[in-house]
Amino acid sequence: SQTIHQWPATLVQPVGSPLSLECTVEGTSNPNLYWYRQAAGRGLQLLFYSVGIGQISSEVPQNLSASRPQDRQFILSSKKLLLSDSGFYLCAWSVETGYTGELFFGEGSRLTVL
Amino acid sequence: GENVEQHPSTLSVQEGDSAVIKCTYSDSASNYFPWYKQELGKRPQLIIDIRSNVGEKKDQRIAVTLNKTAKHFSLHITETQPEDSAVYFCAAAMDSSYKLIFGSGTRLLVRP
């Protein structure tokens, strides 16, 4: 069966520090991978998605970036965090053959920038 | 791009009553409309979805309706139970797109 792992679960970082959130998927090959941010009252905001290794599409201009160094690994990064980067970050995957519906989410990473 | 609006932001109902959550979308090309439920401290999970070739879909106490002309869709929960308390998200996408755009969420509280 397929599983998705995301870490760290909780992170407290000072403004201006770097960020790295990691996500891996097991039990499937060539998944579509996504990073969403959940802020209070704003739902789930799509940040990045990837349909293959090295292929990243950005949906929201900001100081965050994403990379996909391996087929089932998706990384969210920042060189310098802002206060506004605080939130709950969710990694997700879907099946490879186009968009067939269900997104499977990781357990999330709660980031607090102080 | 697609924009999804969801109402209400909070909803409180008595156990056994019905709950209705409504969403509107902007892109007439969207043809896939799922609903996700997020219990407190847990990840969102798909509970039901509908495609634009049907107007209504039911799954036990949950139903979703779609009005393509008006570009809105709704989630209906009948005979609500305390375990239905959660945040519900609607979303919209095109089958040819990899992007699923979510609404802002509705916090449903079912009072025992």
Detailed description of the structure:
The complex is a heterodimer of chains A (about 110) and B (about 110). With about 110 residues, chain A is mainly beta. In chain A, about 0% of the residues lie in helices and about 55% in strands. Chain A contains no helices and 11 strands. In chain A, strands 2, 4, 5, 6, 9, 10 and 11 form a 7-stranded mixed β-sheet that branches. In chain A, strands 1-3-8-7 form a 4-stranded antiparallel β-sheet, with no helix packed on it. In chain B, strands 2, 4, 5, 9, 10 and 11 form a 6-stranded mixed β-sheet that branches. A 5-stranded antiparallel β-sheet of chain B has the order 1-3-8-7-6, with no helix packed on it. With about 110 residues, chain B is mainly β. In chain B, a hairpin with a 6-residue loop joins strand 4 and strand 5 (about 45-50). Chain B is built from no helices and 11 strands. The chains are: A mainly beta (about 110), B mainly beta (about 110). The interface of A and B includes residues 102, 106 and 107 of A.
Q: What is the fold's blueprint, element by element?
A:
The complex is a heterodimer of chains A (114) and B (112).
Chain A: E1 3-7, E2 10-13, E3 19-26, E4 32-38, E5 44-52, E6 55-58, E7 64-70, E8 73-78, E9 87-94, E10 104-105, E11 109-113
Parallel strand pairs in A: 2-11
Antiparallel strand pairs in A: 1-3, 3-8, 4-5, 4-9, 5-6, 7-8, 9-10, 9-11
Chain B: E1 4-7, E2 10-14, E3 19-25, E4 32-38, E5 45-51, E6 56-59, E7 62-67, E8 72-77, E9 86-92, E10 101-102, E11 106-111
Parallel strand pairs in B: 2-11
Antiparallel strand pairs in B: 1-3, 3-8, 4-5, 4-9, 6-7, 7-8, 9-10, 9-11
User: What is the terminal-to-terminal distance of chain B?
Assistant: 41 Å
Structural class of chain A: mainly beta
The DSSP helix count of chain B reads 0
Q: Indicate the structural class of chain B.
A: mainly beta
Protein chains sharing the most extensive interface: A-B, 24 and 26 residues
Give average pLDDT of chain A, whole number.
90
Largest sheet report of chain A: 7 strands, mixed
Order of helices and strands of chain B: EEEEEEEEEEE
Described by strand count, sense and barrel closure, the largest sheet of chain B is:
6 strands, mixed
